Amino acid sequence: MAASDCMLGKIGYGTASEALAYKLPFVFVRRDYFNEEPFLRNLLEHHQSSIEMIRRDFLAGHWKPYLLRALTLQPSYDGPTNGGQVAARILQDIAVGKKCASDKFNGARRLQDAIVLGYQLQRTPGKDVGIPDWYSLNGTEIGAHPIIENTEKIKTAESCCEDFEILHGDLQGLTDTMAFLKSLSGLTGNELKDSEVQSRERTAASVLFDWEREIYVARAPGRLDVMGGIADYSGSLVLQMPLREACHVAVQRNHPSKQKLWKHVQARQLENTGVVPVVQIVSFGSELSNRAPTFDMDLSDFMDGDKPISYEKAREFFCQDPSQKWAAYVSGTILILMTELGVQFTDS
């Protein structure tokens, strides 16, 4: 690797470490069901060392735009490379409580939790092992927050919608919808309004919208399914209740010539037929699961001649990449409208 200009492959502990150590640009293809990948990918991206190649482009040999982009990266890792000693020092510091973190999602705090769990598992009758003094479960450390009155929450959240002019509909005082609008308003250019490092999914989403045009936002509440499930359509007895948790979607239609495209989509269109309608989707929260945060396709992929493709072929299309299979729930609605109602889509 030290003799290479860049590397193309899958993310693993060894390759990620070596790429950082040699400041080597790394073009990677997502691995399915490799739970450690998000942490390694975040580490590489934090040090400006990596670019993800869409698996469809990898299998099709469409590598050139990714490799050219990789050669422009300037990896910034300047940390130590004696990994064994560094890891041992971190474990030692945390084990004695030298670096006690209060954030329960902090890596150090989670390691502390694991150490304390080890203490607890050693407990046997008559031989109790005490938990270290530095570990305390007070309200501050476990992330507990004081209860805020609903009126205060709504008043605070309403101020987050100042960047949008609501032309139709009503927020109904839903704080999660207001928070979603706030997250959209933060997608200005390629920078967040706060000082946090922008995640890959927010970087991808920041270039999608034309902020001078209408954006449609919808909210679908989740439901607790105790009995009946999807059999309710046939008249079966059901026991269900909507939940506070919900799914939010923001959609915008643009003429293909005015749609902002990701770089690999631009390259694909230049090599093929030029500007055509596309679908580009970003899924927030992908870091909490094993799904890819982005998906894109040409709308022509849904056509077989002058007719829409069959649902069977559509399933095969979305199953090509398991990490992007989730996109069928979103873009699949387009195919249903084309097939069942004869809707024709000419916009991106």
Automatic annotation (TrEMBL):
Pfam entry (one): GalKase_gal_bdg
GO molecular function term, any single one: ATP binding
Domain Galactokinase N-terminal: 214-253
Species: Aegilops tauschii subsp. strangulata (Goatgrass)
Biological process terms in GO annotation: carbohydrate metabolic process
Keyword annotations: ATP-binding, Nucleotide-binding
Transmembrane segments: none
Name assigned to this protein: Galactokinase N-terminal domain-containing protein
